[in-house]
Amino acid sequence: VSVGIPIKENLGKYRIATAISYNRNILNQRNFQNFSTGKNNEAKVINVENIDKRSLVKNSGSKINSWKYLILAGIILVLAILAGIGFIGFKKFKASGKNSRGKGPRSLLFLLFFMSSAVIFSMFLNVGNAQANGTLKICVYGKLFDTNKGVYNKLLPSVNIYWNGSSANSYLGHQNGCYTISGPAGTYKGTITASKPSYSYDGVNYHFYNSSHDNFTLHDGWTTRVNIYLTAKNGSVKFYTYNCTDNSAIGNATVHYESYTVNTNNNGYYTLNGVYPGVFRYLYASKNGYSNSDAKLVKISSERLSNLSLCLKPSVGSVTGRVTVCGSPSQGIAKADMLYKGNLLVNDLTDNNGYYTFKKVAAGTYNNISFGGVSGFHNSASQTVVVKPNTTTIANFCLNPNFNSLGYSWFPADGTNYYGFLGTINYKFFINNSTLFTYKNATVKFLYEGTVVSTITKDVNMLKTTEFDYDYLSFIKFPGSHKIGAQVYWNGSQILSEERTINVKTLGGGFLSGQVTDCKDKTKISSARVTQGTNFVNTNSSGIYSMRLPVGTYNGVYASKTGYEDSVSQSVSIKANTTTNANFCMNKQTGSLIVRVLDRSNHPVNNASIFWDDPSAGANNIFLGKTNANGFISGVNLPVGTYHGIYASIGTNKSTKETVTINANSTTRLNLIVSPPSSTPTLNVSFNANPSLGKAPLNVKLTTSVGGTAVGVITYSNQHCGSGGTISNINGGSFNCLYNSPGNYTAGIRVQREGITKTATNNITVSGNSYLDIGLRYYDGSKIVGIAAEKALSSPLRIYKNGKIYGIALVNINDPKASKIRVKTLGGIKALRKL
User: Fold this and answer.
1) Which of 10, 313, 431, 583 lies in the 20 to 30 Å Cα band around 121?
2) For residues 754 and 693, what is the distance between their CA atoms, to the nearest angstrom?
3) End-to-end CA distance of the chain
């Protein structure tokens, strides 16, 4: 049945009747559309149930408006008229005398009448009091946290719900987190408040703030959902970082959590406040020089302080490298300082060859590392050195020379032209190196009128003045002013260029010539310099020299050479076109040698002889002197140089030969060890096997101990395991022997020290699994006598040693004859018999 009643949106508050269900569906669809776009979906978080509808105060009344009564009255009137017309028509139809063929229409008319009456009656009964109902569903969520999930919302069970803040209107939410209640459709003014003071989940205790939702509307036949979300109160966590090795605190470590980091203080602590509670995973600590700690989990609860300790293991590596001269990588720089950000970190770090090494350096990245502090050099460029665990990092540095620290001076002031056609210019160039660095292969170029006439290359030694000299001879026809110059090069770069003007004078003269020899042994001295004022010349390989000088008398002419004392100066007279002869001799510079001789007990040895034995230098057991009661010999003056083969001798005993270097005007000391014949050195050798007895296969560790008064290097040789043994892991006096078969073996070794040789051995016994067959026979006695018995009453045979069972064997008593018992023993048959 379809009733054409216009339905408006607010009519959804009333139940008209089941007969208008189709139109009601249209109404509900409209209301749902309005609800789904409203603000009810934007509520806060939580889950609740059981709001009693008696406490819900509806905003609008429940009575039907008067215009609705007029519509209903009009409907009733129309139906009544239709019913009356139908009844009149029925009477006329009946009076016309129609036959029974009209019964069908009459029945239909009556059915229509009664149904219409029922509908009208039903509508009348319900129209005044059938008010429409809706459903309210309140769901309360808690905001939780887990590293794996992030922030997520979870329905909270058993939440307290308040309506309009009244404790009288309070309800406890169901376990599923939602509460559902029905009430008259309409809009309600008021506040729904959800409260959950404490909630534990996954080991975290959440204390939630209250949350509320204002106003809601119930729609006829539909469920209105209100979501309320609760936020928890913050907690705190205290981090502690420490050393896994010794449990000491590690300060200034970085703690990583989520995408954030914090740094602990000097004592290893950091307290992080204002942290939303939850489960925080994968927290770890890091610091340069340490391996990262293991990742850990911490659970932080509301209004509580959680603690998390993280331990880091030290992570170390090593750093090595060399400090050299830039452009000359083979030239190391000694005593260079390591610098950090330009400030001194380690003083005089490099050795004489420029090498340095750091062991057990904490792994990490080190910025702004440089070397410097060396006189005559600029500091090196800074580097970043990365040290990795269990790895050696190589970091090399180079220093550029500071040439401003070198001093330069040179001659001449003039030149000489002899007889108007042969001229000479004496170049003398000096480089004073006051630094601790030797400039290898420094080059000086001498120029005449802009043209290079000579190139000389030498090492400019540290803390010394190095001389570069050259005599330039030229046919100069026109005496007068000439330009000469000097240029200095090092490592391919020019570091000095100077030019001077000199006056070449024309002079007549004669020659000075002669020979320079050793004053003691009269050997000829080559490369010696004979000097007269600013004039000089070097001797040739035969020690002969010759120089031209103007006519005149010259005082203070002398010869010199490194390693020699200067000769006695002479006065010479030069005559025109005449050669004047002047010979010079020089004594080698000497130093002092002091030798002390001790025995092996560190006591002085009296009357020991000291010799120099170096056939390559022509010295064959040259006697230098004898020691006094305190073991000393002093006052031995030797020419400057290096002496090999210095040794002490007393009786037939001799010390080892040593090498000494004698420096000019210096004293060199040397200690030698030699024992008098009455205290012949001894050599004691102990050779141990562990174990020396066992069952095959047997692995034996052999070790050697050396004692006695003999000193010097110990030499091990002829290590062996004996025939049938396999040797391995030889390390001087220790090695291993493997014996796979039973037998007796002899291992040995040879030891040598200070000319004494000792051989040591050790016997090793290797056994297999030995068996002893014991025959048994029955006899009348009640006990076993010894091992062999004539007759046994019991089947097991127990063998005892020192009150404890050594072995058990079973007798086959079903065999009427004697049964044999096989007993296993590691010690062999003899060992079993001794039981």
Assistant:
1) 10
2) 34
3) 119
Residue 18 DSSP symbol: G
Is 312's pLDDT higher than 50? yes
Cite the DSSP H helix spans in 96-203. Answer: 103-126
Q: Are 146 and 279 in contact (CB under 8 A)?
A: yes
Question: Where on the phi/psi map is residue 291: left (φ > 0), alpha (ψ -120 to 50), or beta?
Answer: beta
* Separation between Cα atoms, residue 326 and residue 802, nearest integer Å: 82
If you average pLDDT over residues 262-275, what whole number do you get? Answer: 95
Q: State how far the Cα of 672 lies from the Cα of 659, in Å rounded to an integer.
A: 11
What are the CA-CA distances from residue 658 to residues 72, 275, 606, 786 (Å)? 139, 76, 20, 75
Pairing of strands 397-399, 316-325: parallel
What is the C-alpha separation between 545 and 528, in angstroms, rounded?
9
Q: Are 296 and 310 in contact (CB under 8 A)?
A: yes
Q: Tell me the C-alpha distance between 355 and 362, whole Å.
A: 20
For 611-623, the three-class secondary structure string (H helix, E strand, C coil) is EEEEHHHCEEEEE
* Count of CB atoms situated within 10 Å of the CB of 823: 19
The 10s digit of each residue's pLDDT in 640-662 is 889 999 999 988 888 999 999 98
Q: What is the DSSP letter of 122?
A: H
Domains and CATH numbers, the chain: 235-314 (2.60.40.1120), 316-400 (2.60.40.1120), 404-504 (2.60.40.10), 509-586 (2.60.40.1120), 590-679 (2.60.40.1120), 684-767 (2.60.40.1080), 770-833 (no CATH)
516-530 average pLDDT score:
93
The count of other CB atoms within 10 Å of the CB of residue 678 is: 7
Task: Lowest mean pLDDT of 172-176, 249-253, 619-623, name the range.
Answer: 172-176
| Residue 39 or residue 787, greater confidence | 787
What is the C-alpha to C-alpha distance for residues 631 and 688, in angstroms, rounded to an integer? 40
Spatial separation of the C-alpha atoms in residues 413 and 546, rounded to whole Å: 22
Whether the Cβ atoms of residue 456 and residue 480 lie closer than 8 Å to each other: no
CA distance 369 to 385: 7
- Report the amino acid identity of residue 649: S
Which tens digit of pLDDT belongs to each residue from 604-645?
989 999 999 988 888 888 999 999 988 999 878 888 889 999
Distance separating alpha carbons of residues 578 and 135, to the nearest angstrom: 143
pTM of the entire predicted model:
0.34
CA 804-807-812 angle, to 5 degrees, is 135
Give me the mean pLDDT over the 414-430 stretch: 62
